[in-house]
């Protein structure tokens, strides 16, 4: 395989640029031609494709977001859209593709695989909700961004003896809430994977106040409900001077951590090795700190991501 391409799709994540950089530099090192596709699958279908050189990825490893840009393109879910994309790849003589993104991006890669086109998927999403990997590109940076906010919120919560409900991202996964909540010393972590009782939440706050606790931090995963809705429901059990902070898209930005940069670099270089060996239809993951390659059809069809729910119990035992 002498000519490959790389694209980023779906929501941006810190470390995507590091992954693209690794694909380009490793591909050139192996004597390949490497092409970048702008705006994900939308750019693929439109033929927004350019040849990449070493200088094109210089000084990008520290930048968040994705310099290849990203766009939603639901039309790629149709066979017509997929065949248009493959037509463009063939037009440029591209023999293999690296797709960096989350669940929707993987489904596009899966469609290309089913059409017989060699594709390697790399997990890039702050939500950390991809099956077949312990960690995704961007997750570590996101939880550190949340942690920094929690540390600051605790200062004002203590000053005013308030309860802060901090809504974090993650779609339907509770990974961000779990990891940031434990690291930030949150009193409560509310995630989609665990049922909760609002009366118990209120009772724990009361017990803390009785012991002289000056603040309460509740980290709420957006997949459960919105922060304001949670606050309204909590009011039914008492006025705990609750305030809501929605961190929003700040969690997606920022310079990637060392962990995300290294993980992205490993994934990118390994993807090139796979394509060099004429392998496709795979998605890479990190399992027990080892890079693994999974069949993308089997991974999306049979496996489901589950967060480390032991962190939930740990927090219940040490937070009060």
TrEMBL record:
<comment type="function">
    <text>Catalyzes the phosphorylation of D-fructose 6-phosphate to fructose 1,6-bisphosphate by ATP, the first committing step of glycolysis.</text>
</comment>
<keyword id="KW-0808">Transferase</keyword>
<dbReference type="GO" id="GO:0006002">
    <property type="term" value="P:fructose 6-phosphate metabolic process"/>
</dbReference>
<comment type="pathway">
    <text>Carbohydrate degradation; glycolysis; D-glyceraldehyde 3-phosphate and glycerone phosphate from D-glucose: step 3/4.</text>
</comment>
<protein>
    <recommendedName>
        <fullName>ATP-dependent 6-phosphofructokinase</fullName>
        <ecNumber>2.7.1.11</ecNumber>
    </recommendedName>
</protein>
<dbReference type="GO" id="GO:0061621">
    <property type="term" value="P:canonical glycolysis"/>
</dbReference>
<dbReference type="GO" id="GO:0042802">
    <property type="term" value="F:identical protein binding"/>
</dbReference>
<dbReference type="GO" id="GO:0005945">
    <property type="term" value="C:6-phosphofructokinase complex"/>
</dbReference>
<dbReference type="InterPro" id="IPR000023">
    <property type="entry name" value="Phosphofructokinase_dom"/>
</dbReference>
<keyword id="KW-0963">Cytoplasm</keyword>
<feature type="binding site">
    <location>
        <begin position="21"/>
        <end position="25"/>
    </location>
    <ligand>
        <name>ADP</name>
    </ligand>
</feature>
<keyword id="KW-0067">ATP-binding</keyword>
<feature type="active site" description="Proton acceptor">
    <location>
        <position position="127"/>
    </location>
</feature>
<feature type="binding site" description="in other chain">
    <location>
        <begin position="169"/>
        <end position="171"/>
    </location>
    <ligand>
        <name>substrate</name>
    </ligand>
</feature>
<dbReference type="GO" id="GO:0048029">
    <property type="term" value="F:monosaccharide binding"/>
</dbReference>
<feature type="binding site" description="in other chain">
    <location>
        <begin position="249"/>
        <end position="252"/>
    </location>
    <ligand>
        <name>substrate</name>
    </ligand>
</feature>
<feature type="binding site" description="in other chain">
    <location>
        <begin position="185"/>
        <end position="187"/>
    </location>
    <ligand>
        <name>ADP</name>
    </ligand>
</feature>
<dbReference type="GO" id="GO:0003872">
    <property type="term" value="F:6-phosphofructokinase activity"/>
</dbReference>
<feature type="binding site" description="in other chain">
    <location>
        <position position="222"/>
    </location>
    <ligand>
        <name>substrate</name>
    </ligand>
</feature>
<dbReference type="InterPro" id="IPR012828">
    <property type="entry name" value="PFKA_ATP_prok"/>
</dbReference>
<feature type="domain" description="Phosphofructokinase">
    <location>
        <begin position="3"/>
        <end position="275"/>
    </location>
</feature>
<comment type="subunit">
    <text>Homotetramer.</text>
</comment>
<keyword id="KW-0324">Glycolysis</keyword>
<feature type="binding site">
    <location>
        <position position="103"/>
    </location>
    <ligand>
        <name>Mg(2+)</name>
    </ligand>
</feature>
<feature type="binding site">
    <location>
        <position position="243"/>
    </location>
    <ligand>
        <name>substrate</name>
    </ligand>
</feature>
<feature type="binding site" description="in other chain">
    <location>
        <begin position="125"/>
        <end position="127"/>
    </location>
    <ligand>
        <name>substrate</name>
    </ligand>
</feature>
<keyword id="KW-0021">Allosteric enzyme</keyword>
<keyword id="KW-0547">Nucleotide-binding</keyword>
<dbReference type="GO" id="GO:0005524">
    <property type="term" value="F:ATP binding"/>
</dbReference>
<dbReference type="GO" id="GO:0070095">
    <property type="term" value="F:fructose-6-phosphate binding"/>
</dbReference>
<feature type="binding site">
    <location>
        <begin position="102"/>
        <end position="105"/>
    </location>
    <ligand>
        <name>ATP</name>
    </ligand>
</feature>
<feature type="binding site" description="in other chain">
    <location>
        <position position="211"/>
    </location>
    <ligand>
        <name>ADP</name>
    </ligand>
</feature>
<dbReference type="InterPro" id="IPR035966">
    <property type="entry name" value="PKF_sf"/>
</dbReference>
<comment type="similarity">
    <text>Belongs to the phosphofructokinase type A (PFKA) family. ATP-dependent PFK group I subfamily. Prokaryotic clade 'B1' sub-subfamily.</text>
</comment>
<feature type="binding site" description="in other chain">
    <location>
        <begin position="213"/>
        <end position="215"/>
    </location>
    <ligand>
        <name>ADP</name>
    </ligand>
</feature>
<dbReference type="InterPro" id="IPR022953">
    <property type="entry name" value="ATP_PFK"/>
</dbReference>
<feature type="binding site">
    <location>
        <position position="11"/>
    </location>
    <ligand>
        <name>ATP</name>
    </ligand>
</feature>
<dbReference type="Pfam" id="PF00365">
    <property type="entry name" value="PFK"/>
</dbReference>
<dbReference type="InterPro" id="IPR012003">
    <property type="entry name" value="ATP_PFK_prok-type"/>
</dbReference>
<feature type="binding site" description="in other chain">
    <location>
        <position position="154"/>
    </location>
    <ligand>
        <name>ADP</name>
    </ligand>
</feature>
<feature type="binding site">
    <location>
        <position position="162"/>
    </location>
    <ligand>
        <name>substrate</name>
    </ligand>
</feature>
<keyword id="KW-0418">Kinase</keyword>
